Amino acid sequence: MVGGSYLILEHAHTVGWTSTRAPVPVVGGPPPPPPLREIVGIFAKNQTITDALSQNGLPRQQIFEMVATTRPVYNLARVTAGKPFWLYLTPEGRFHDFRYPIDDERYLTVYRDGDRFVPVIKKFPYEIRVEPVAGDIEGSLFAALSDAGERDTLAESFAEIFNGDIDFYTEIQPGDNFRLLVEKKYLGANFVKYGPILAASISNQNKTFTGFRFLDENGREGFYAPDGKSLKKSFLKSPFKFARISSKFSFARRHPILKIIRPHLGVDYAAPIGTPVQAVGSGVVVLTGQTSTNGKMVRLRHSGGYETMYLHLSSIAVRSGSRVDQTQVIGYVGATGLVTGPHLDFRVFLHERAIDPRKVIFPPNPPVPPSRFAQFAQLCDMLKAQLDRAAD
């Protein structure tokens, strides 16, 4: 969970980073049971649950029984280093219950019922709030959202909505602005994680792009313009979410090593070695290999006569003949071949003719179907009203 902050709400009380769990006495009622002793720990590297709980006074045989009973529900033999756990003991030191976060949506609780252990997987009781976020961009989208008090993951999600229309490194200008509506998940008063973005808008170089989240008949998420056209293109504008162009497409570029004028039929993106490279579109891997000039490379064939190439990789993550999806990692930035430093040489071909990747206008995915457009339009009207208020 983000920031290592877990909060579990259960049995009308809160369990967090506290040391006791004492019930509040009821005036005129029976005396409350004695408080439980709470132990909060974090699993160390290579530490087993037996090691962790036995160090806190639980008999090893009892731990073995708990793990065996829990196995059909969750395998506690595979706890993750760095994750916390909660162990509750009675004042006499007997086991009462154990809790462990499985992921950021679920946690395991194991409690004692007489002589047996009872394992249950529960969902974190999130409170979901829809909140507006808006701001002006002076440097980057990341910086603007950080200034607004948001996390980098929100910038990544926002950029994915418009990455078929905007290259968020090369095309963002000072004075651009954005606004969005996003679900935020809270446990108690603590913000934990983002849910989906519901609506988003960005003004870039005096042109405004707006998208609304809409689910298809199978529950798959898509973002669409107010007229129902899909914002997702058949190709992304860049094989990176964020990267710097170090050399542009040219039919007459002076080669930095050979010192001669020759065509450069791609766009170079400067990025650290090991940066993931994503396929800009779905397709088939038609070539993986290495040459002295291009280094390690991947070539993909897409529909419509398009092919893309990714050169100078440090390693390749796909096999020739396999199918890949848009945004799938196909390799990692390197400095193989004839280069002066780590970068990706990205190339696009249409019917075997090289074209400038920055100038290609790819077709969008299918629009909202006519049978569902009335439902989409009603949703747009509601979200647009909220989105407009975000800019006020």
| Weakly predicted, low-confidence segments | 11-26, 248-255, 257-262
Name the shape in a single word: globular
Instruction: State the helicity in percent bands.
Output: 10-25%
CATH topology of the largest domain: Nuclear Transport Factor 2, Chain: A
Q: What is the N-to-C order of secondary-structure elements (H for helix, E for strand)?
A: EEEEHHEEEEEHHEEEEEEEEEEEEEEEEH
Give the count of helical stretches.
Answer: 5
Largest sheet: 10 strands, antiparallel
CATH class of the largest domain: Alpha Beta
Proportion of β residues? 35-45%
Which second-level CATH architecture of the largest domain applies?
A: Roll
Taken together, the total number of domains comes to: 3
Structural class: mainly beta
Radius of gyration, rounded? 27 Å
N- and C-termini, Cα separation: 33 Å
Q: How many strands appear in the DSSP assignment?
A: 25
Residue-averaged pLDDT, rounded?
84
Structural summary, described in words:
The chain is mainly beta and 392 residues long. It folds into three domains: 116 residues, Nuclear Transport Factor 2, Chain: A (Roll); 97 residues, Nuclear Transport Factor 2, Chain: A (Roll); 116 residues, Glucose Permease (Domain IIA). It is built from five helices and 25 strands. The strands form five sheets. Strands 14, 17, 18, 19, 20, 21, 22, 23, 24 and 25 form a ten-stranded antiparallel β-sheet that branches. A hairpin with a 2-residue loop joins strand 24 and strand 25.
Short summary of the structure?
This protein is mostly beta strands. The chain is built from five helices and 25 strands.
